[in-house]
Every structure is written in structure tokens, then in C-alpha cells.
């Protein structure tokens, strides 16, 4: 019996060329098809401990590397995937990027990548992913995913910088040498406003608000560290808490960016109530970079974004406590309604 909907993408047209096309990427990078001559470089990359750990494989010799490359190139003919070698402007192999599990009916695919050890820190993976995203979207693919182990913070950072929103976590779904790992699932839709749980609010001063990713930890840490006045957070503890919070359906961490830089964040969570006959969105932390306070509309953009999230979740209202920003909250429509009390937990 034929399937009624689809296909979304004409795979015959998408894979009509003899091999994946050569693509250009930022930084003078060149994405090209793999060849058997790449075997020694591939073997060397898979000897790297990080590649072995996160890609869960080794390559013992050049013959095995050639077999691996042959498998990659064979997916093009099968119309199931495309694999590119990434060269720098001098012709040296600096990375790999893939588009696999291509589904023409649903218009979906998954992107993968690695960077050669001596090329890390240069934005190779991000630039390569952006180039493949452009090609995939031009070919009609509508939903692209990136999956990585939760502990692979570098890969999470690439996904976030490439515009992929964190959609959720697959518990104990991928087997590595040290056991099963939870996997983050990031997703990219054609338009920012289609990304699940990722509000894209543009403020009057060009402030963009989006959902945080685990890869934002380094950029957020100075704001978190500067905010604390009655506690002493640690950088490692914060990174762990961020990774756990961004995947919670009842919590939201929002990041404000301006000019490509992180200039603020907001942490909120849904609190169950009896009296309101609905949950309440409690804003725990709002932090704006010192040089943007009172000038750029950062706080306003963050608050409006969390209000939109609260409405989507069916919250009765948004509530928060503030020691120094009362005038700001009253100016944007908030009323003082209670006195805030707290007491430290003994032994904590």
C-alpha cells in the first residue's frame, strides 16, 4: 500500500552528481569528497584520544582507513548520506563533516563532524557545518539534527554556534568504551521561530534572546560569577548545573546576545501551585552585563521572552524577587506583592 504523504525531497535530484559537491566555507575552508589517498590522514586522526572517545572507534592501519573512506563514499551512491573532507587553504586535512540518515519522505537528516587535533580552536567544525546546512536547505531538507554525548561540550558548542537548538536528551542511548551515554539532540528548522522551545526575540537595540545551550557555559560564567553575592559558585558546578537545566521541560535558561556577544541571561522554572489553579513561572536569576545595564533593553527583552514561554506553558503569571531592580520591573508592568524571605539550609 503506498504511503500517502511525501516525499518532501527528491533524492534522485539531491544525489544526482557523481559525488558530493565541493563546498566553500568561512576561513578559506574547502569541503570536498573523500579519496583513498586520505587514508593516512584519517588513520592519524582516529588515533587521537578525543576522537576515539566521542566517535567510539579506532583505525588500526591505512587499509582499514581506506575501507572506512570507501564506506563513506558509498553512501552517496545509495542516496543515504554525504561525507566531506575539510581542507584548509593550504590543502591540509583539518576536519570531516557528514550528512547522514537522509530521509526524503520526511525531509530530515543528521549532521556529524570532527576536527583534526592540530586544527582545533579555529572554528573549523562550525564553518563546515554552516556550509553543509546551506547545501542541505537548498536541496529541500527541512529538519536537520546534531546528536552528541552530553559530556562532549566542544560538540555542543559547535551545535549552538551553528544555530541548532537543544531539543532534548536521549537517555543512555549510545554505547561508548566506558558505557552508555546520554545524548543531546539539537535541531535546526528553516526559520528561527520554528525551533522548539527557542524564542527568538529581537529587542529594539538588536538584542536577540534564545534558549541557552550547554556550550554557552564559558560565555555565561563571568555573568554568573559576578551575580553571586551570598554564595560562591564554582565554574565546574555551574557547567554541570547548566547542562542539567537546559534539558528540563519545566525550566528555561534564556541568553541575550548583541553583536554576537552574550550580554545577559535569565533563569526561570515552573512552580506548581494550588491557589492559582495553574503553575507559576518563577524567575530565579536575571543578569545583564554591566556595560549594557539601563541602555540596551537587554533586561526587557529577556523578561518579555520568559513571559512568552510562561504563556505557552499555561502559567498563571510570572513572579520574581528583586533587591535592586524594583524600578525596572515596575516600569515594565510588574507589581510588588510580597516580602521575600530566605534561610540557609544547615549543613549545605
Automatic annotation (TrEMBL):
Q: Which GO terms describe its cellular component?
A: ribosome
Question: Does the record carry Ribonucleoprotein as a key word?
Answer: yes
Q: Which Pfam families match?
A: Acetyltransf_1 (PF00583), Acetyltransf_3 (PF13302)
Q: Which enzyme type, at the first EC level?
A: transferase
Q: Which domain of life is it from?
A: Bacteria
Q: What is its EC number?
A: 2.3.1.267
InterPro entries referenced in this protein's UniProt entry, alphabetically: Acyl_CoA_acyltransferase (IPR016181), Bact_Acetyltransf (IPR050832), GNAT_dom (IPR000182)
Name one molecular function that GO assigns to this entry.
protein-N-terminal-alanine acetyltransferase activity
Q: Does the keyword Coiled coil apply?
A: no
Sorted keywords for this record are: Acyltransferase, Ribonucleoprotein, Ribosomal protein, Transferase
The N-acetyltransferase domain covers which part of the protein? Answer: 29-194, 207-348
Q: What is this protein called?
A: [Ribosomal protein S5]-alanine N-acetyltransferase
Please report the organism this UniProt entry assigns to the protein.
Luteimicrobium xylanilyticum
Q: What is the lineage of its organism?
A: Bacteria, Bacillati, Actinomycetota, Actinomycetes, Micrococcales
Amino acid at each position: 500500500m503506498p504511503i500517502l504523504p511525501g516525499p518532501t525531497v527528491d533524492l534522485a535530484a539531491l544525489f544526482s552528481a557523481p559525488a558530493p559537491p565541493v563546498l566553500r566555507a568561512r576561513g578559506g575552508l574547502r569541503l570536498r569528497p573523500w579519496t583513498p589517498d586520505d587514508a593516512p590522514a584519517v588513520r592519524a586522526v582516529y588515533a587521537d584520544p578525543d576522537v576515539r572517545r566521542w566517535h567510539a572507534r579506532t583505525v588500526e592501519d591505512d587499509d582499514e582507513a581506506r575501507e572506512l573512506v570507501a564506506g563513506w563514499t558509498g553512501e552517496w551512491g545509495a542516496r543515504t548520506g554525504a561525507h566531506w573532507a575539510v581542507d584548509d587553504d593550504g590543502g591540509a586535512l583539518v576536519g570531516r563533516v557528514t550528512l547522514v540518515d537522509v530521509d526524503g519522505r520526511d525531509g530530515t537528516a543528521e549532521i556529524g563532524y570532527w576536527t583534526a587535533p592540530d586544527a582545533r580552536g579555529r572554528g573549523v567544525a562550525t564553518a563546515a557545518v554552516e556550509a553543509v546546512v546551506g547545501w542541505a536547505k537548498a536541496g529541500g531538507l527541512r529538519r536537520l539534527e546534531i546528536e552528541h554525548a552530553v559530556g562532549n561540550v566542544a560538540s555542543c558548542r559547535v551545535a549552538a554556534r551553528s544555530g541548532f537548538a537543544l531539543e532534548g536528551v536521549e537517555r543512555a542511548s549510545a554505547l561508548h568504551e566506558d558505557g552508555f551515554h546520554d545524548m543531546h539532540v539539537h535541531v535546526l528548522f528553516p526559520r528561527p521561530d520554528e525551533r522548539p522551545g527557542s524564542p527568538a526575540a529581537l529587542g529594539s537595540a538588536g538584542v536577540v534572546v534564545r534558549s541557552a545551550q550547554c556550550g554557552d557555559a564559558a560565555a555565561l560564567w563571568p555573568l554568573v560569577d559576578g551575580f553571586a553575592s551570598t554564595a560562591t559558585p564554582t565554574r565546574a558546578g555551574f557547567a554541570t548545573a547548566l547542562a542539567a537545566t537546559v534539558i528540563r521541560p519545566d525550566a528555561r535558561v534564556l541568553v541575550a546576545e548583541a553583536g554576537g556577544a552574550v550580554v545577559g541571561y535569565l533563569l526561570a522554572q515552573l512552580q506548581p501551585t494550588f491557589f492559582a489553579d495553574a503553575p507559576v513561572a518563577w524567575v530565579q536569576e536575571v543578569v545583564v552585563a554591566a556595560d549594557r545595564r539601563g541602555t540596551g533593553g537587554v533586561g526587557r527583552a529577556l523578561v518579555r521572552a520568559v513571559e512568552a514561554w510562561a504563556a505557552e506553558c499555561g502559567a498563571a503569571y510570572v513572579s520574581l524577587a528583586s533587591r535592586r531592580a524594583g524600578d525596572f520591573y515596575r516600569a515594565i508592568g510588574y507589581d510588588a506583592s510580597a516580602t521575600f524571605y530566605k534561610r540557609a539550609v544547615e549543613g549545605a
